Amino acid sequence: MTDRKKLARKLVLFAKERLGLGKLDSIYAENVILAWLHEPSPYEGELAYEAPELPDSLYEELETALSELGSKDPHKEAVAIFGIITPRPDAVDETFHSLMKEDPFKATEYLLEVGRASGYYAETAIKKNLRWDATYEDGASPLVVTINLSKPEKNNKDIAAALKAKSVAYPSCALCKENLGYEGGGKIPPRGTLRFVSITLDGGPWYLQYSPYGYFSRHCIAFQDEHSPMKIDAHCFRSLLDFVDLFPRFFIGSNSDLPIVGGSILTHEHFQGGDKELPLFKAKKRKTVAHENGVEILILDFYDSVLLLEGKDKAAIAALAERLLAAWRDHEDGKRHFAPIEKDGTCHQTFTPFASKEGDLYRFYLIFRCNSVNEEHPGGIYHAHEDKWAIKKEGIGLIEAAGLFVLPARLKRQLALLEEGAQKSLEFAELAKDNPDLQEFSDCYAHLKKGESVEHYVNAICRAILDDVAVYKNSKEDQEAFEAFVKENLR
After folding, report:
1. CA dist., res. 406 & res. 397, Å (int)
2. pLDDT at res. 157
3. May I ask the CATH architecture of the domain 125-404+474-488?
4. What is the per-residue pLDDT across 228-250, written as a single tens digit (0 to 9) for each?
5. What confidence tens digit (pLDDT) does each residue in 347-371 have?
6. In this structure, which of 314, 321, 442, 472 has its CB flanked by the most CB atoms within 10 Å?
């Protein structure tokens, strides 16, 4: 049986050491925790306790104690209790802005540390994810491949339906500010330890938090105060550029605003950013197309179709991006299934934009996206084609489009089974009979039986997916068409 009085004291001592819990707040917090644990009085005497760096062991002990008390959802209650010892949202915001005056990086590191120590940022789980660098013998840009063991896999049809549905839930989505302290329910997990801070982008109220999943180093999320749909427009471009003024160490990017080519949440305007480690930012420059108003316009040597706008005048960059967006949205090319905006306002072409800053030089990346479909590819002509869905079926959002693949957790088990079967020289039909969810992996299995490694196969598929995503392929004809589009719309 858990010593609940001692546990309450350990939680307070941990919070004093790792979360900055103050003297009076410690008395308050311990009494509230004791009430949760059905204890009328605190632990007596001094308790020798060395606070761990992360709270995992405390969560485990707390959930055990709550289970012993008959809790129907010990994890939800444990998060609520940790919310008591985590600094209040206003206090976090105040400390963050105080540190911003000294050094923006100190401010963001403080916010990250609050997430780590409270357990909101699941560092231990994140470290269990599989990750490797994908390199290619022909010298093509390296990619990064991850198998994320905590991220749920989403269906593109569900994402599109969510965009059209009228929300009656509370909170309206997993990004809304009303998630602060929310006990959890439906598809939203408990948020007692969620903390974010206020920022201003393009003159409007936004918030900044860290992603609990951490797909890459210092993976943060900026989200708009108002629950309104994703929209790629001039406001979006100005907001991205404002963000890198505030936090020049980070990049920031936005998913596109259309189903299929957008991210997993299209109902709430938000950006994602972090350390500048994504493969896109290491891509070589293929060709300078033009110079305009002090901005250099280049085509990057990358898999999908990317323009880089580089210059010191962010207003000129934003204006140029807006012109290119308007032209791209209304661009028609029957051969490539590009179509102008329809009479009902339906749009099929957009950008996935990114911003970064080095010194006083802005870099603004525009990945051209198109969500057209046809009979051959009803899931999207410029989405991962059906023959690759076993590896990646979800929308190719900003992270994958920039060269970091977040693959579903199921692959860890599926690929291990395929690898084991190949080593034992089993017939694919025999293997798939015992494991029905391997039916789509016949191509993968054929490669493994020839001696190819799992990583080599997955690397090739990820590269091929980005080739599918490219609206202008890596051919002489398509690259000339890409360059012609840019030049024609800069006149």
Report:
1. 10
2. 53
3. 2-Layer Sandwich (3.30)
4. 999 999 999 999 999 999 999 99
5. 999 999 999 999 999 999 999 999 9
6. 321
Residue boundaries of the structural domains of the chain: 4-85, 125-404+474-488
Exposed/middle/buried for residue 475 (C-beta within 10 Å: 0-12, 13-18, 19+): exposed
- 353, burial (CB in 10 Å: exposed 0-12, middle 13-18, buried 19+): buried
Pairing of strands 295-301, 306-311: antiparallel
Measure the CA–CA gap between 313 and 236, rounded to whole angstroms: 17
> pTM of this prediction?
0.94
What is the band of 152 on the pLDDT scale with cuts at 50, 70, 90?
Answer: low
Q: What is the pLDDT of residues 326-350, one digit of tens each?
A: 999 999 999 999 999 988 889 999 9
Count how many Cα atoms sit within 13 Å of the Cα of residue 441 in the half-sphere of its side chain. Answer: 31
